[in-house]
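for the writeup, i need someone to sanity check this before i put it in the appendix. the sequnce is what the collaborator sent (i think, or maybe the updated version? ugh). structure was predicted straight from it, no edits. if anything looks off just tell me and ill rerun, i have time this weekend
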Amino acid sequence: MASLLSTTLNITARLAPGLAGPRAFALFVRPLGRARLRPEEAEVMARAERGRMVVHGTAVTTYRWGDGDRPVLIVHGWSSRASRLAGFVEALRAQGRTVIAFDAPGHGESDGRASTILDYRAIIGRLHAEHGDFSAVVAHSFGVLATFSMLHDGIRVDRVVGIGGVAQFDYLVERFRAGLNLGEGVGRALRTHVERRLFPGDLEVWQRLDARRPFPGMRAPILLVHDTQDDVIDPAQSRVIAAAYGPQARLIETSGLGHRRILADPDVIATAVDFALSEPEREPAPATAPATVRRV
């Protein structure tokens, strides 16, 4: 099937360049199936207070555990769902913290079949308007890029935890192109359509959707965790964020956990939650070289 799609899009780019962008975009914004709730996640999710909001015409499911102020925000990745971070929710609740999360359109219990970074930004913005500033954000994969985009928009947070994160929106476009063996022409057409469809008139969209570019006002300490054997998102994506933010960021690299199992690793969860909840005076010194949480 992927081979057929690749061939079709590559031919379209040669014969009808104007159609290649929209057709590639339709695939680009569609999750690879809808992730299902796992048995080990069910108990945590059953304790959540569910809400619904409509974002860009699509009904979205939100979750809340606790009723305190300055909650911790959970942001899931692409083709995933909030429940994949149930271990973090449980650990945060054990410390008495309020946690909020959501399923993006086309994910989990939310409606729709497609999603974009604009949806993530809109949902996070609505949750911020409802709950106020977040004490911390724990994000995974695409959710890391969405989090930095949110911070660029002026939403304040005390601490940021990014796990297996994406640094550049442009990286996702190139990864999509290469993953489907699409030609450079399709890649250019997709970039052009993204600009016109999602960010009309924005001449700096690729620069703004780049977590490697620190911006004024972003002073929150950052913890980045990435597995060296992640075959979905290149570990270099977290490394460039860490390099860009210098002593403000700490990078931890694991081995053997991959892109998804890292979310269930107890050592990763404990380290991330401890960082998210630590006070400034308890904050560990930034690592000058990647550390290892656990090797399996």
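DSSP finds eleven helices and eight strands in the chain. The first strand starts at residue 49 and ends at 55.
thx in advance!!
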